[in-house]
Write a structure and sequence with these properties.
single chain; 318 residues; alpha/beta; Quinone Oxidoreductase, Chain A, domain 1; Rossmann fold; six-stranded parallel sheet; 16 strands; globular; binds NADP nicotinamide-adenine-dinucleotide phosphate
């Protein structure tokens, strides 16, 4: 297989494209041949030495997600056969053209999606579905505020909110036209609180930016609203007014996907399979790909991932 390998921690100088033997599936794993791989900010954090892979996952091949075709399977695999197109989550090893995934961490790709589109789906849609629906309990008629709406997770979250029957406010510094096309009311971060308050307050906030929004989110929240913190790229530490929290009778959730035990990750993937994949199959939701880089230009792709103003996912092409 070909894989992006980290030779140590640091910047682009520790990235290599290497040939390695194909991995062999464990009893409940499938081996997926992938033409495209999604990049995540976690891959950048891992390269910098700040986010090591969980135990049991490949330690020197980054990548949190997979999409492609099953080419081999373990003896106990029940749900998939060679030739099936699948997508799902991995703890590491995703930036490769052969990727092992536990069968409960994968589900079938709808025919409508190309291989490229499928690669733009798993981490973005599973993360946002888990945060907004499973943790945030978004309901019909609710107001959803997505902070950092133009990125991979945010643009998926906007679509999940719209299809779930919520009024969706997309807070972003760019891509307002595209976010409006997805069915959101696009606002600048500085205008988000006033816009959401005028709509009665946010029942759910999907927080993808971090610390600078903590106080604003409490102001934007409706009574009994839920803030779900998923990303902290703009900062991790902030003052929190417990008085505002009490008066709103609010809840703050924090969540990560990668470090979850096997069965909890499986639950998130299977909930996505049931509640999101049918809408990808019908075309009501779509994969949003910002840019595809050849795998030989992976370091440039990482630089692009770290930059501002993207709309959707950044992919590598093998
Ligand atoms: N907890 C989990 O399990 C999990 C899973 C997946 C992702 N994440 C995290 O969730 C976040 C979003 O992921 P992603 O893949 O969607 O990343 P992404 O595509 O890079 O999107 C990041 C978003 O945050 C915004 N942002 C970053 N810094 C900002 C700042 N200082 N002020 C205002 N906006 C800022 C970006 O806006 P601009 O384009 O204007 O910079 C963009 O909208 C990341 O922090 C990622 O690490 C967590």
């Amino acid at each position: 297989m070909r894989a992006i390998v980290y030779t140590g921690t640091g910047g682009r100088e520790v990235m290599r494209l290497e040939e390695r033997p194909d991995p062999v599936p464990g009893s409940e794993e499938v081996l997926v041949a992938a033409r495209f791989a999604g990049i995540n900010t976690a891959d950048l954090a891992q390269r910098a030495g700040a986010y090591p892979a969980p135990p049991g996952a490949p330690q020197d091949v980054p990548g949190l997600e997979v999409a492609g075709t099953v080419v081999a399977k373990g003896a106990a695999v029940r749900d998939f056969a060679e030739g099936d197109r699948v997508f799902g989550l991995v703890g590491g090893g995703g930036l490769a053209d052969r990727v092992l995934v536990h069968e409960r961490h994968a589900t079938r790709v709808p025919e409508r999606l190309s291989d490229e589109e499928a690669a733009g789906v798993p981490e973005a849609f599973i993360t946002s579905h888990d945060a907004i629906v499973t943790r945030g309990a978004l309901g019909l008629g609710d107001v959803l505020l997505v902070n950092g709406a133009n990125g991979g997770v945010g643009s998926a979250g906007v679509q999940i909110g719209v299809v779930a029957g919520a009024r969706v406010f997309a807070s972003a510094r760019s891509a307002h036209g595209q976010l409006a096309e997805l069915g959101a009311e696009a606002v600048l971060p500085d205008d988000a609180v006033a816009a959401v308050q005028a709509a009665g307050g946010a029942d759910v906030v999907l927080e993808l930016v971090g610390a600078p929004n903590v106080d604003r989110n409490l102001d934007a929240l409706a009574t009994k609203g839920r803030i779900v913190v998923v990303g902290t790229g703009a900062g991790t530490d902030a003052d929190l007014s417990l008085r505002k929290l009490m008066h709103k009778r609010a809840t703050i959730h924090g969540t990560v996907l990668r470090a979850r035990p096997l069965e909890e990750k499986a639950a998130a993937v299977q909930a996505f399979a049931h509640e999101v994949v049918p809408h990808l199959a019908s075309g009501r939701m779509r994969a949003i790909v910002d840019r595809v880089f050849p795998v030989e230009e992976a370091a440039d792709a990482f630089d692009h991932m770290a930059g501002s103003g993207k709309f959707g996912k950044v992919l590598l092409a093998f």
